[in-house]
Amino acid sequence: MYTFSNKLRNLAFALMAVGFAGLVYGFLAAPKTVEEAKAMVATEHHGGDHGATTDEHAAIAAHAEDAHATEEAHAAVDDHASEAHGEEHDASHDVHLLHQLQNKPWAALYVAAFFFFMIALGVLAFYAIQRAAQAGWSPVLYRVMEGITAYLLPGGIIVIVILALSGMHFNHLFIWMDPEVVAHDKLIAGKTAFLNVPFFLGRAVFFLAGWTLYRFYSRKLSLAQDEANDISNHTKNFRISAGFLVFYIVTESIMSWDWIMSIDPHWFSTLFGWYVFASMFVSGITVIALVTIYLKSKGYLEFVNDSHIHDLGKFMFGVSVFWTYLWFSQFMLIWYSNIPEEVTYFITRIEDYNITFFGMIAMNFLFPLLILMNSDYKRTNYFIIMAGIVIVLGHYLDVFNMIMPSAVGDQWFIGIPEVGGFLFFLGLFLFVVFTELTKAPLLAKGDPYMGESERFHY
Amino acid sequence: MSNQVIHALYDDDDTLLSAVKEVRAEKHHIEEIYTPFPVHGLDKAMGLAETRIAIMAFIYGCIGFSVAITMINFIMISDWPQNIGGKPSFTFLENLPAFVPVIFEMTVFFAAHLMVITFYLRSRLWPFKEAENPNPLTTDDKFLMEVAMHGNEEELTALLQKTGAIEITVPENTEE
Q: Taking the model in full, what pTM does it have?
Protein backbone atom coordinates (compact mmCIF):
# COMPACT_ATOMS: atom_id res chain seq x y z
CA MET A 1 0.00 0.00 0.00
CA TYR A 2 1.12 3.47 -0.82
CA THR A 3 1.30 6.09 1.91
CA PHE A 4 0.98 9.73 0.97
CA SER A 5 4.23 11.26 2.18
CA ASN A 6 3.88 14.40 4.28
CA LYS A 7 6.38 16.17 2.09
CA LEU A 8 4.25 15.72 -1.02
CA ARG A 9 1.05 16.53 0.84
CA ASN A 10 2.57 19.76 2.14
CA LEU A 11 3.78 20.57 -1.35
CA ALA A 12 0.26 20.06 -2.70
CA PHE A 13 -1.20 22.35 -0.03
CA ALA A 14 1.51 24.94 -0.58
CA LEU A 15 0.83 24.93 -4.33
CA MET A 16 -2.88 25.35 -3.67
CA ALA A 17 -2.29 28.20 -1.24
CA VAL A 18 0.10 30.05 -3.55
CA GLY A 19 -2.13 29.43 -6.54
CA PHE A 20 -5.22 30.56 -4.68
CA ALA A 21 -3.48 33.76 -3.64
CA GLY A 22 -2.49 34.35 -7.26
CA LEU A 23 -6.05 33.84 -8.45
CA VAL A 24 -7.47 36.13 -5.77
CA TYR A 25 -4.93 38.77 -6.74
CA GLY A 26 -6.02 38.37 -10.36
CA PHE A 27 -9.65 38.97 -9.48
CA LEU A 28 -8.88 41.94 -7.23
CA ALA A 29 -6.59 43.53 -9.79
CA ALA A 30 -9.19 43.34 -12.58
CA PRO A 31 -10.60 46.76 -13.45
CA LYS A 32 -14.12 47.63 -12.32
CA THR A 33 -14.78 50.53 -14.66
CA VAL A 34 -13.93 51.63 -18.16
CA GLU A 35 -11.64 54.37 -16.81
CA GLU A 36 -9.61 51.89 -14.77
CA ALA A 37 -9.27 49.62 -17.76
CA LYS A 38 -8.03 52.46 -19.96
CA ALA A 39 -5.60 53.57 -17.28
CA MET A 40 -4.24 50.04 -16.91
CA VAL A 41 -3.60 49.65 -20.58
CA ALA A 42 -1.99 53.09 -20.76
CA THR A 43 0.46 52.39 -17.91
CA GLU A 44 1.25 48.95 -19.21
CA HIS A 45 2.19 50.26 -22.59
CA HIS A 46 4.34 52.99 -21.12
CA GLY A 47 5.81 50.65 -18.54
CA GLY A 48 7.07 48.42 -21.30
CA ASP A 49 6.95 45.26 -19.22
CA HIS A 50 4.41 43.80 -21.59
CA GLY A 51 7.02 42.38 -23.94
CA ALA A 52 5.23 40.53 -26.69
CA THR A 53 2.24 42.78 -27.12
CA THR A 54 4.05 46.08 -26.75
CA ASP A 55 6.18 45.37 -29.77
CA GLU A 56 3.29 44.63 -31.99
CA HIS A 57 0.86 47.23 -30.81
CA ALA A 58 2.91 50.18 -29.72
CA ALA A 59 -0.10 52.44 -29.78
CA ILE A 60 -3.51 51.27 -28.73
CA ALA A 61 -5.10 53.87 -30.96
CA ALA A 62 -3.45 52.50 -34.08
CA HIS A 63 -4.54 49.06 -33.03
CA ALA A 64 -8.18 49.95 -32.64
CA GLU A 65 -8.98 49.91 -36.37
CA ASP A 66 -7.02 46.75 -36.87
CA ALA A 67 -8.90 44.97 -34.12
CA HIS A 68 -12.17 45.70 -35.83
CA ALA A 69 -11.07 44.02 -38.98
CA THR A 70 -9.88 40.85 -37.32
CA GLU A 71 -11.70 40.39 -34.08
CA GLU A 72 -15.04 38.77 -34.61
CA ALA A 73 -15.82 38.80 -30.92
CA HIS A 74 -15.59 42.52 -31.03
CA ALA A 75 -17.59 42.81 -34.20
CA ALA A 76 -20.32 40.91 -32.43
CA VAL A 77 -20.46 43.27 -29.47
CA ASP A 78 -20.25 46.30 -31.63
CA ASP A 79 -22.50 45.61 -34.53
CA HIS A 80 -22.44 49.15 -35.88
CA ALA A 81 -19.10 48.80 -37.62
CA SER A 82 -20.62 50.25 -40.77
CA GLU A 83 -21.78 53.39 -39.03
CA ALA A 84 -18.54 53.74 -37.15
CA HIS A 85 -18.64 57.29 -35.90
CA GLY A 86 -15.86 58.47 -33.67
CA GLU A 87 -17.44 58.84 -30.23
CA GLU A 88 -19.71 55.85 -30.11
CA HIS A 89 -17.08 53.69 -31.70
CA ASP A 90 -14.43 54.56 -29.14
CA ALA A 91 -16.83 54.04 -26.29
CA SER A 92 -17.77 50.54 -27.40
CA HIS A 93 -14.13 49.71 -27.87
CA ASP A 94 -13.42 50.78 -24.32
CA VAL A 95 -16.23 48.62 -23.00
CA HIS A 96 -14.81 45.75 -24.97
CA LEU A 97 -11.39 46.38 -23.43
CA LEU A 98 -12.97 46.40 -19.99
CA HIS A 99 -14.63 43.06 -20.68
CA GLN A 100 -11.35 41.59 -21.86
CA LEU A 101 -9.52 42.71 -18.73
CA GLN A 102 -12.35 41.48 -16.53
CA ASN A 103 -12.24 38.15 -18.32
CA LYS A 104 -8.54 37.75 -17.65
CA PRO A 105 -8.66 36.15 -14.17
CA TRP A 106 -11.68 34.08 -15.22
CA ALA A 107 -9.88 32.81 -18.29
CA ALA A 108 -6.76 32.06 -16.23
CA LEU A 109 -8.94 30.05 -13.85
CA TYR A 110 -10.83 28.32 -16.64
CA VAL A 111 -7.74 27.35 -18.69
CA ALA A 112 -6.04 25.73 -15.69
CA ALA A 113 -9.25 24.07 -14.43
CA PHE A 114 -9.99 22.63 -17.84
CA PHE A 115 -6.39 21.56 -18.44
CA PHE A 116 -6.12 19.43 -15.29
CA PHE A 117 -9.61 18.07 -15.81
CA MET A 118 -8.63 17.13 -19.35
CA ILE A 119 -5.64 15.13 -18.07
CA ALA A 120 -7.93 12.99 -15.91
CA LEU A 121 -10.32 12.49 -18.82
CA GLY A 122 -7.47 11.58 -21.17
CA VAL A 123 -6.19 9.00 -18.69
CA LEU A 124 -9.70 7.60 -18.35
CA ALA A 125 -9.85 7.11 -22.13
CA PHE A 126 -6.41 5.48 -22.14
CA TYR A 127 -7.44 3.21 -19.27
CA ALA A 128 -10.65 2.20 -21.06
CA ILE A 129 -8.67 1.41 -24.21
CA GLN A 130 -6.32 -0.85 -22.21
CA ARG A 131 -9.36 -2.61 -20.71
CA ALA A 132 -11.24 -2.93 -23.98
CA ALA A 133 -8.14 -4.13 -25.83
CA GLN A 134 -7.39 -6.58 -22.98
CA ALA A 135 -3.83 -5.29 -23.15
CA GLY A 136 -1.16 -7.56 -21.74
CA TRP A 137 1.54 -5.00 -21.02
CA SER A 138 -0.32 -2.41 -18.96
CA PRO A 139 -2.17 -4.10 -16.04
CA VAL A 140 0.72 -3.21 -13.73
CA LEU A 141 -0.20 0.44 -14.33
CA TYR A 142 -3.96 0.11 -13.77
CA ARG A 143 -3.85 1.42 -10.20
CA VAL A 144 -1.80 4.44 -11.26
CA MET A 145 -4.36 5.22 -13.96
CA GLU A 146 -7.26 4.70 -11.55
CA GLY A 147 -5.57 7.08 -9.13
CA ILE A 148 -5.28 9.80 -11.76
CA THR A 149 -8.87 9.42 -12.94
CA ALA A 150 -10.01 10.13 -9.36
CA TYR A 151 -9.54 13.78 -10.28
CA LEU A 152 -12.25 13.47 -12.95
CA LEU A 153 -15.19 14.20 -10.64
CA PRO A 154 -13.79 17.10 -8.56
CA GLY A 155 -12.10 18.60 -11.63
CA GLY A 156 -15.26 18.23 -13.71
CA ILE A 157 -17.44 19.79 -11.03
CA ILE A 158 -15.13 22.80 -10.85
CA VAL A 159 -15.26 23.25 -14.64
CA ILE A 160 -19.05 23.00 -14.64
CA VAL A 161 -19.32 25.50 -11.79
CA ILE A 162 -17.22 27.94 -13.82
CA LEU A 163 -19.46 27.34 -16.82
CA ALA A 164 -22.55 27.88 -14.66
CA LEU A 165 -21.11 31.14 -13.33
CA SER A 166 -20.53 32.22 -16.94
CA GLY A 167 -24.14 31.34 -17.61
CA MET A 168 -25.11 33.64 -14.74
CA HIS A 169 -23.13 36.47 -16.40
CA PHE A 170 -20.35 36.70 -13.84
CA ASN A 171 -17.98 37.00 -16.81
CA HIS A 172 -17.99 37.33 -20.58
CA LEU A 173 -16.05 34.19 -21.49
CA PHE A 174 -18.89 32.92 -23.66
CA ILE A 175 -20.28 35.86 -25.57
CA TRP A 176 -23.20 33.83 -26.91
CA MET A 177 -24.55 33.67 -23.35
CA ASP A 178 -25.22 37.41 -23.53
CA PRO A 179 -28.75 38.02 -24.96
CA GLU A 180 -27.63 41.51 -25.97
CA VAL A 181 -24.97 40.02 -28.25
CA VAL A 182 -27.25 37.36 -29.68
CA ALA A 183 -29.89 39.98 -30.56
CA HIS A 184 -27.39 41.78 -32.80
CA ASP A 185 -25.75 38.73 -34.27
CA LYS A 186 -27.52 36.70 -36.93
CA LEU A 187 -24.96 33.88 -36.90
CA ILE A 188 -25.19 33.27 -33.17
CA ALA A 189 -28.97 33.72 -33.27
CA GLY A 190 -29.09 30.85 -35.76
CA LYS A 191 -27.29 28.61 -33.27
CA THR A 192 -29.43 29.30 -30.19
CA ALA A 193 -31.21 25.97 -30.52
CA PHE A 194 -27.93 24.37 -29.51
CA LEU A 195 -26.09 27.21 -27.81
CA ASN A 196 -28.39 28.21 -24.99
CA VAL A 197 -27.45 28.19 -21.33
CA PRO A 198 -29.85 25.54 -19.93
CA PHE A 199 -29.13 23.00 -22.69
CA PHE A 200 -25.41 23.78 -22.49
CA LEU A 201 -25.25 23.13 -18.75
CA GLY A 202 -27.53 20.12 -19.05
CA ARG A 203 -25.20 18.56 -21.59
CA ALA A 204 -22.20 19.29 -19.39
CA VAL A 205 -23.80 17.57 -16.39
CA PHE A 206 -24.89 14.63 -18.53
CA PHE A 207 -21.38 14.14 -19.96
CA LEU A 208 -19.68 14.33 -16.58
CA ALA A 209 -22.26 11.97 -15.09
CA GLY A 210 -21.59 9.42 -17.85
CA TRP A 211 -17.82 9.56 -17.48
CA THR A 212 -18.00 9.43 -13.68
CA LEU A 213 -20.39 6.49 -13.79
CA TYR A 214 -17.98 4.47 -15.92
CA ARG A 215 -15.07 5.46 -13.72
CA PHE A 216 -16.96 4.44 -10.59
CA TYR A 217 -18.01 1.00 -11.87
CA SER A 218 -14.71 0.22 -13.53
CA ARG A 219 -12.81 1.03 -10.34
CA LYS A 220 -15.24 -1.03 -8.30
CA LEU A 221 -14.88 -4.04 -10.59
CA SER A 222 -11.11 -3.62 -10.66
CA LEU A 223 -10.95 -3.71 -6.85
CA ALA A 224 -13.38 -6.63 -6.66
CA GLN A 225 -11.20 -8.58 -9.10
CA ASP A 226 -8.30 -8.48 -6.61
CA GLU A 227 -9.96 -11.00 -4.30
CA ALA A 228 -12.13 -12.84 -6.83
CA ASN A 229 -11.78 -16.52 -7.73
CA ASP A 230 -13.01 -16.16 -11.30
CA ILE A 231 -12.62 -13.46 -13.92
CA SER A 232 -16.24 -12.35 -14.11
CA ASN A 233 -15.33 -8.86 -12.81
CA HIS A 234 -12.64 -8.57 -15.44
CA THR A 235 -15.07 -9.60 -18.20
CA LYS A 236 -17.67 -7.09 -17.02
CA ASN A 237 -15.01 -4.42 -16.91
CA PHE A 238 -14.05 -5.28 -20.48
CA ARG A 239 -17.67 -4.88 -21.62
CA ILE A 240 -18.37 -1.58 -19.90
CA SER A 241 -15.01 -0.21 -21.11
CA ALA A 242 -15.88 -0.97 -24.72
CA GLY A 243 -19.28 0.66 -24.22
CA PHE A 244 -17.73 3.64 -22.51
CA LEU A 245 -15.36 4.27 -25.40
CA VAL A 246 -18.31 4.71 -27.78
CA PHE A 247 -19.99 7.08 -25.33
CA TYR A 248 -16.72 8.87 -24.70
CA ILE A 249 -15.76 9.72 -28.26
CA VAL A 250 -19.17 11.22 -29.01
CA THR A 251 -19.45 13.16 -25.76
CA GLU A 252 -15.82 14.26 -25.77
CA SER A 253 -16.34 15.73 -29.22
CA ILE A 254 -19.47 17.64 -28.19
CA MET A 255 -17.77 18.69 -24.96
CA SER A 256 -14.90 20.23 -26.96
CA TRP A 257 -17.35 22.22 -29.10
CA ASP A 258 -19.25 23.34 -26.03
CA TRP A 259 -16.51 24.16 -23.61
CA ILE A 260 -13.85 25.46 -25.97
CA MET A 261 -15.01 26.04 -29.53
CA SER A 262 -18.14 27.97 -28.49
CA ILE A 263 -15.87 30.64 -27.00
CA ASP A 264 -15.49 31.65 -30.67
CA PRO A 265 -19.13 31.16 -31.60
CA HIS A 266 -18.63 32.19 -35.24
CA TRP A 267 -15.74 29.89 -35.91
CA PHE A 268 -15.91 26.16 -36.36
CA SER A 269 -13.62 23.30 -37.24
CA THR A 270 -14.84 19.82 -38.02
CA LEU A 271 -11.85 18.04 -36.50
CA PHE A 272 -11.85 20.07 -33.31
CA GLY A 273 -13.05 17.14 -31.19
CA TRP A 274 -10.16 15.01 -32.39
CA TYR A 275 -7.72 17.81 -31.84
CA VAL A 276 -8.76 18.27 -28.22
CA PHE A 277 -8.80 14.50 -27.81
CA ALA A 278 -5.20 14.21 -29.01
CA SER A 279 -4.18 16.94 -26.61
CA MET A 280 -5.84 15.29 -23.59
CA PHE A 281 -4.63 11.85 -24.61
CA VAL A 282 -0.97 12.79 -24.81
CA SER A 283 -1.11 14.87 -21.61
CA GLY A 284 -2.80 11.98 -19.85
CA ILE A 285 -0.25 9.39 -20.98
CA THR A 286 2.57 11.73 -20.03
CA VAL A 287 1.14 12.19 -16.55
CA ILE A 288 0.83 8.40 -16.17
CA ALA A 289 4.54 8.13 -17.00
CA LEU A 290 5.49 10.95 -14.60
CA VAL A 291 3.46 9.53 -11.70
CA THR A 292 4.80 6.03 -12.36
CA ILE A 293 8.40 7.20 -12.35
CA TYR A 294 7.79 9.24 -9.19
CA LEU A 295 6.30 6.22 -7.40
CA LYS A 296 9.14 4.00 -8.58
CA SER A 297 11.70 6.49 -7.31
CA LYS A 298 10.04 6.22 -3.88
CA GLY A 299 10.43 2.44 -3.91
CA TYR A 300 6.89 1.53 -4.92
CA LEU A 301 5.79 -0.24 -8.12
CA GLU A 302 8.83 -2.54 -8.00
CA PHE A 303 7.06 -4.74 -10.59
CA VAL A 304 7.15 -1.96 -13.22
CA ASN A 305 10.26 -2.37 -15.36
CA ASP A 306 11.84 -0.15 -17.97
CA SER A 307 9.92 -1.88 -20.76
CA HIS A 308 6.70 -0.45 -19.35
CA ILE A 309 8.29 2.99 -19.27
CA HIS A 310 9.52 2.37 -22.81
CA ASP A 311 5.96 1.68 -23.97
CA LEU A 312 4.64 4.81 -22.28
CA GLY A 313 7.47 6.70 -23.99
CA LYS A 314 6.41 5.29 -27.34
CA PHE A 315 2.87 6.48 -26.69
CA MET A 316 4.11 9.94 -25.69
CA PHE A 317 6.13 10.11 -28.89
CA GLY A 318 3.43 8.70 -31.13
CA VAL A 319 0.53 10.73 -29.78
CA SER A 320 2.64 13.91 -29.86
CA VAL A 321 3.11 13.32 -33.57
CA PHE A 322 -0.60 12.52 -33.91
CA TRP A 323 -1.47 15.79 -32.17
CA THR A 324 0.81 17.65 -34.58
CA TYR A 325 -0.85 15.95 -37.51
CA LEU A 326 -4.26 17.16 -36.37
CA TRP A 327 -2.98 20.62 -35.51
CA PHE A 328 -1.45 20.95 -38.95
CA SER A 329 -4.46 19.46 -40.74
CA GLN A 330 -6.66 22.06 -39.10
CA PHE A 331 -4.23 24.87 -39.71
CA MET A 332 -3.30 24.12 -43.32
CA LEU A 333 -6.85 23.76 -44.65
CA ILE A 334 -7.94 27.01 -43.05
CA TRP A 335 -4.76 28.79 -44.11
CA TYR A 336 -5.10 27.58 -47.69
CA SER A 337 -8.81 28.24 -48.20
CA ASN A 338 -8.39 31.66 -46.55
CA ILE A 339 -12.11 32.15 -45.89
CA PRO A 340 -12.43 35.30 -43.76
CA GLU A 341 -14.72 33.87 -41.10
CA GLU A 342 -12.43 30.87 -40.61
CA VAL A 343 -9.02 32.40 -41.01
CA THR A 344 -9.55 35.10 -38.36
CA TYR A 345 -9.02 32.35 -35.81
CA PHE A 346 -5.42 31.86 -36.88
CA ILE A 347 -4.76 35.50 -37.74
CA THR A 348 -5.49 36.59 -34.16
CA ARG A 349 -3.32 33.77 -32.85
CA ILE A 350 -0.38 34.48 -35.12
CA GLU A 351 -0.54 38.24 -34.64
CA ASP A 352 -1.30 38.49 -30.94
CA TYR A 353 -0.11 35.12 -29.64
CA ASN A 354 2.93 34.55 -31.79
CA ILE A 355 5.18 33.26 -29.00
CA THR A 356 2.70 30.90 -27.40
CA PHE A 357 1.32 29.73 -30.74
CA PHE A 358 4.63 28.75 -32.28
CA GLY A 359 6.32 28.01 -28.96
CA MET A 360 3.65 25.38 -28.41
CA ILE A 361 4.61 23.65 -31.67
CA ALA A 362 8.22 23.47 -30.56
CA MET A 363 7.25 22.11 -27.14
CA ASN A 364 4.60 19.66 -28.29
CA PHE A 365 6.20 18.46 -31.50
CA LEU A 366 9.85 19.27 -32.14
CA PHE A 367 11.14 18.64 -28.64
CA PRO A 368 9.44 15.27 -28.01
CA LEU A 369 10.15 14.23 -31.60
CA LEU A 370 13.87 14.74 -31.29
CA ILE A 371 14.24 13.61 -27.65
CA LEU A 372 12.02 10.55 -27.74
CA MET A 373 13.07 9.30 -31.17
CA ASN A 374 15.94 7.28 -29.75
CA SER A 375 14.83 3.92 -28.45
CA ASP A 376 17.23 3.96 -25.47
CA TYR A 377 16.07 7.40 -24.30
CA LYS A 378 12.52 6.09 -23.92
CA ARG A 379 13.81 3.65 -21.28
CA THR A 380 15.68 6.33 -19.36
CA ASN A 381 13.66 8.00 -16.61
CA TYR A 382 15.57 11.26 -16.95
CA PHE A 383 14.56 11.75 -20.58
CA ILE A 384 10.95 10.73 -19.98
CA ILE A 385 10.68 13.21 -17.11
CA MET A 386 12.28 16.01 -19.11
CA ALA A 387 10.18 15.39 -22.22
CA GLY A 388 7.12 14.84 -20.03
CA ILE A 389 7.38 18.20 -18.27
CA VAL A 390 7.78 19.99 -21.60
CA ILE A 391 4.81 18.11 -23.09
CA VAL A 392 2.57 18.91 -20.11
CA LEU A 393 3.48 22.60 -20.18
CA GLY A 394 3.13 22.61 -23.96
CA HIS A 395 -0.39 21.28 -23.78
CA TYR A 396 -1.27 23.80 -21.09
CA LEU A 397 -0.20 26.41 -23.66
CA ASP A 398 -2.34 24.63 -26.24
CA VAL A 399 -5.43 25.09 -24.06
CA PHE A 400 -4.27 28.64 -23.36
CA ASN A 401 -4.14 29.33 -27.11
CA MET A 402 -7.58 27.85 -27.63
CA ILE A 403 -9.30 29.90 -24.93
CA MET A 404 -7.41 33.16 -24.35
CA PRO A 405 -7.60 34.87 -27.78
CA SER A 406 -11.39 35.09 -27.71
CA ALA A 407 -11.57 35.76 -23.99
CA VAL A 408 -8.98 38.48 -23.51
CA GLY A 409 -7.78 39.31 -27.05
CA ASP A 410 -4.37 40.95 -27.12
CA GLN A 411 -4.52 41.72 -23.40
CA TRP A 412 -3.04 38.33 -22.51
CA PHE A 413 -0.07 37.80 -20.29
CA ILE A 414 1.26 34.79 -18.44
CA GLY A 415 1.35 36.59 -15.13
CA ILE A 416 0.28 36.06 -11.54
CA PRO A 417 -3.32 34.87 -12.15
CA GLU A 418 -2.30 32.49 -14.95
CA VAL A 419 0.59 30.92 -13.04
CA GLY A 420 -1.55 30.98 -9.89
CA GLY A 421 -4.34 29.09 -11.64
CA PHE A 422 -1.89 26.50 -12.90
CA LEU A 423 -0.31 26.01 -9.46
CA PHE A 424 -3.65 25.87 -7.66
CA PHE A 425 -5.01 23.12 -9.86
CA LEU A 426 -1.66 21.33 -9.87
CA GLY A 427 -1.81 21.21 -6.09
CA LEU A 428 -5.40 20.03 -6.08
CA PHE A 429 -4.60 17.43 -8.72
CA LEU A 430 -1.63 16.08 -6.76
CA PHE A 431 -3.67 15.97 -3.58
CA VAL A 432 -6.64 14.12 -5.11
CA VAL A 433 -4.54 11.71 -7.17
CA PHE A 434 -2.11 10.67 -4.45
CA THR A 435 -4.90 10.38 -1.88
CA GLU A 436 -6.68 7.97 -4.19
CA LEU A 437 -3.46 5.97 -4.67
CA THR A 438 -3.32 5.25 -0.92
CA LYS A 439 -6.76 3.62 -1.01
CA ALA A 440 -5.88 0.40 -2.81
CA PRO A 441 -2.84 -1.85 -3.31
CA LEU A 442 -0.70 -0.59 -6.18
CA LEU A 443 -0.77 -4.00 -7.82
CA ALA A 444 -4.12 -5.07 -9.25
CA LYS A 445 -3.16 -8.64 -8.42
CA GLY A 446 -6.36 -10.33 -9.56
CA ASP A 447 -6.10 -9.23 -13.16
CA PRO A 448 -5.82 -12.28 -15.42
CA TYR A 449 -3.17 -10.53 -17.51
CA MET A 450 -1.04 -9.57 -14.53
CA GLY A 451 1.46 -12.38 -15.06
CA GLU A 452 2.01 -11.37 -18.65
CA SER A 453 2.33 -7.74 -17.65
CA GLU A 454 4.90 -8.44 -14.93
CA ARG A 455 7.00 -10.56 -17.27
CA PHE A 456 6.66 -8.01 -20.04
CA HIS A 457 9.98 -7.23 -21.69
CA TYR A 458 11.00 -5.68 -24.94
CA MET B 1 42.70 -23.72 -41.86
CA SER B 2 39.73 -25.92 -42.20
CA ASN B 3 36.52 -24.20 -43.17
CA GLN B 4 34.54 -27.20 -42.22
CA VAL B 5 31.11 -26.82 -40.74
CA ILE B 6 28.47 -29.12 -39.36
CA HIS B 7 24.76 -28.72 -40.08
CA ALA B 8 22.09 -29.50 -37.53
CA LEU B 9 18.45 -29.52 -38.57
CA TYR B 10 15.66 -28.66 -36.11
CA ASP B 11 11.91 -28.82 -36.53
CA ASP B 12 10.85 -26.38 -33.83
CA ASP B 13 11.84 -22.78 -33.13
CA ASP B 14 11.78 -23.20 -29.33
CA THR B 15 14.09 -26.23 -29.55
CA LEU B 16 16.34 -24.22 -31.84
CA LEU B 17 16.45 -21.32 -29.41
CA SER B 18 17.47 -23.48 -26.46
CA ALA B 19 19.94 -25.36 -28.69
CA VAL B 20 21.58 -22.06 -29.64
CA LYS B 21 22.06 -21.24 -25.97
CA GLU B 22 23.56 -24.65 -25.19
CA VAL B 23 25.91 -24.63 -28.17
CA ARG B 24 27.15 -21.18 -27.28
CA ALA B 25 27.56 -22.17 -23.64
CA GLU B 26 29.94 -24.90 -24.85
CA LYS B 27 31.98 -22.20 -26.65
CA HIS B 28 31.28 -23.34 -30.17
CA HIS B 29 31.00 -20.77 -32.90
CA ILE B 30 27.65 -20.62 -34.70
CA GLU B 31 28.36 -19.50 -38.25
CA GLU B 32 24.80 -19.00 -39.43
CA ILE B 33 21.23 -20.05 -38.82
CA TYR B 34 18.66 -20.47 -41.59
CA THR B 35 15.01 -20.20 -40.60
CA PRO B 36 11.78 -20.13 -42.60
CA PHE B 37 10.54 -17.14 -40.57
CA PRO B 38 12.03 -14.63 -38.14
CA VAL B 39 12.45 -16.23 -34.72
CA HIS B 40 11.86 -13.80 -31.86
CA GLY B 41 14.88 -13.48 -29.62
CA LEU B 42 17.20 -15.42 -31.92
CA ASP B 43 19.51 -12.45 -32.53
CA LYS B 44 19.98 -11.96 -28.79
CA ALA B 45 20.54 -15.69 -28.20
CA MET B 46 23.16 -15.75 -30.94
CA GLY B 47 24.86 -12.70 -29.46
CA LEU B 48 24.59 -10.67 -32.66
CA ALA B 49 25.42 -6.98 -32.43
CA GLU B 50 22.50 -4.51 -32.23
CA THR B 51 21.26 -3.34 -35.60
CA ARG B 52 22.37 0.11 -36.69
CA ILE B 53 19.61 0.51 -39.26
CA ALA B 54 17.70 2.92 -36.99
CA ILE B 55 20.57 5.41 -37.17
CA MET B 56 20.66 5.04 -40.94
CA ALA B 57 16.89 5.57 -41.07
CA PHE B 58 17.31 8.89 -39.29
CA ILE B 59 20.13 9.95 -41.62
CA TYR B 60 18.14 8.91 -44.71
CA GLY B 61 15.16 10.84 -43.39
CA CYS B 62 17.33 13.92 -43.00
CA ILE B 63 18.58 13.48 -46.57
CA GLY B 64 15.00 13.21 -47.84
CA PHE B 65 14.04 16.27 -45.82
CA SER B 66 16.87 18.34 -47.34
CA VAL B 67 16.25 17.06 -50.87
CA ALA B 68 12.54 17.88 -50.56
CA ILE B 69 13.21 21.43 -49.37
CA THR B 70 15.76 22.06 -52.10
CA MET B 71 13.49 20.57 -54.73
CA ILE B 72 10.31 22.39 -53.75
CA ASN B 73 12.17 25.64 -53.32
CA PHE B 74 13.58 25.33 -56.82
CA ILE B 75 10.31 24.25 -58.44
CA MET B 76 7.84 26.48 -56.65
CA ILE B 77 9.86 29.57 -55.74
CA SER B 78 12.91 30.16 -57.90
CA ASP B 79 12.26 28.42 -61.21
CA TRP B 80 8.57 28.96 -61.93
CA PRO B 81 6.56 30.70 -59.19
CA GLN B 82 2.90 29.89 -59.46
CA ASN B 83 -0.14 31.38 -57.84
CA ILE B 84 -2.14 28.42 -56.57
CA GLY B 85 -5.37 29.05 -54.68
CA GLY B 86 -4.62 32.74 -54.24
CA LYS B 87 -1.28 32.03 -52.62
CA PRO B 88 1.37 33.59 -54.85
CA SER B 89 4.74 31.93 -54.32
CA PHE B 90 7.04 34.76 -53.35
CA THR B 91 9.05 33.30 -50.52
CA PHE B 92 9.56 29.82 -49.22
CA LEU B 93 8.52 30.61 -45.66
CA GLU B 94 5.26 32.27 -46.69
CA ASN B 95 4.16 29.18 -48.56
CA LEU B 96 5.66 26.66 -46.19
CA PRO B 97 2.31 25.16 -45.05
CA ALA B 98 1.57 24.13 -48.64
CA PHE B 99 4.97 22.42 -48.89
CA VAL B 100 4.85 20.53 -45.61
CA PRO B 101 2.95 17.50 -46.99
CA VAL B 102 5.47 17.20 -49.83
CA ILE B 103 8.41 17.50 -47.46
CA PHE B 104 6.89 14.94 -45.13
CA GLU B 105 6.23 12.44 -47.91
CA MET B 106 9.72 12.78 -49.36
CA THR B 107 11.25 12.28 -45.92
CA VAL B 108 9.31 9.07 -45.44
CA PHE B 109 10.01 7.96 -49.01
CA PHE B 110 13.76 8.41 -48.68
CA ALA B 111 13.92 6.80 -45.25
CA ALA B 112 11.87 3.78 -46.30
CA HIS B 113 13.45 3.07 -49.68
CA LEU B 114 17.05 3.70 -48.71
CA MET B 115 16.54 1.59 -45.62
CA VAL B 116 15.29 -1.37 -47.68
CA ILE B 117 18.15 -0.96 -50.16
CA THR B 118 20.65 -0.80 -47.30
CA PHE B 119 19.18 -3.91 -45.81
CA TYR B 120 19.47 -5.78 -49.13
CA LEU B 121 23.07 -4.69 -49.68
CA ARG B 122 24.03 -5.51 -46.13
CA SER B 123 22.43 -8.96 -46.41
CA ARG B 124 24.11 -9.43 -49.82
CA LEU B 125 20.82 -9.84 -51.62
CA TRP B 126 20.21 -8.68 -55.16
CA PRO B 127 18.08 -9.78 -58.12
CA PHE B 128 18.94 -13.16 -59.67
CA LYS B 129 21.20 -14.03 -56.81
CA GLU B 130 21.68 -17.76 -56.16
CA ALA B 131 20.13 -18.91 -52.89
CA GLU B 132 22.66 -19.42 -50.11
CA ASN B 133 20.74 -21.73 -47.85
CA PRO B 134 22.37 -25.18 -47.82
CA ASN B 135 19.13 -27.05 -47.35
CA PRO B 136 15.88 -26.15 -49.17
CA LEU B 137 13.92 -27.47 -46.18
CA THR B 138 14.69 -24.18 -44.41
CA THR B 139 12.29 -22.46 -46.80
CA ASP B 140 9.60 -24.90 -45.70
CA ASP B 141 9.33 -25.69 -41.98
CA LYS B 142 12.82 -26.64 -40.76
CA PHE B 143 15.55 -24.68 -39.03
CA LEU B 144 19.22 -25.20 -39.79
CA MET B 145 22.13 -24.30 -37.56
CA GLU B 146 25.62 -24.12 -39.04
CA VAL B 147 28.40 -24.61 -36.50
CA ALA B 148 32.11 -24.25 -37.18
CA MET B 149 34.06 -27.49 -36.77
CA HIS B 150 37.75 -27.84 -35.97
CA GLY B 151 38.29 -31.59 -36.14
CA ASN B 152 35.93 -32.18 -33.26
CA GLU B 153 33.15 -33.76 -35.26
CA GLU B 154 32.23 -36.43 -32.78
CA GLU B 155 32.04 -34.18 -29.79
CA LEU B 156 29.87 -31.72 -31.75
CA THR B 157 27.58 -34.38 -33.11
CA ALA B 158 26.94 -35.66 -29.60
CA LEU B 159 26.22 -32.18 -28.34
CA LEU B 160 23.88 -31.32 -31.19
CA GLN B 161 22.09 -34.63 -30.81
CA LYS B 162 21.54 -33.81 -27.19
CA THR B 163 20.02 -30.42 -28.05
CA GLY B 164 17.29 -32.09 -30.08
CA ALA B 165 18.53 -31.88 -33.67
CA ILE B 166 16.56 -34.17 -35.96
CA GLU B 167 19.34 -34.57 -38.50
CA ILE B 168 23.08 -33.84 -38.40
CA THR B 169 25.20 -33.71 -41.54
CA VAL B 170 28.70 -32.68 -42.47
CA PRO B 171 28.48 -31.19 -45.95
CA GLU B 172 31.17 -31.75 -48.56
CA ASN B 173 33.47 -28.81 -48.69
CA THR B 174 32.31 -27.18 -51.91
CA GLU B 175 34.25 -23.99 -51.61
CA GLU B 176 37.25 -25.17 -53.62
A: 0.86
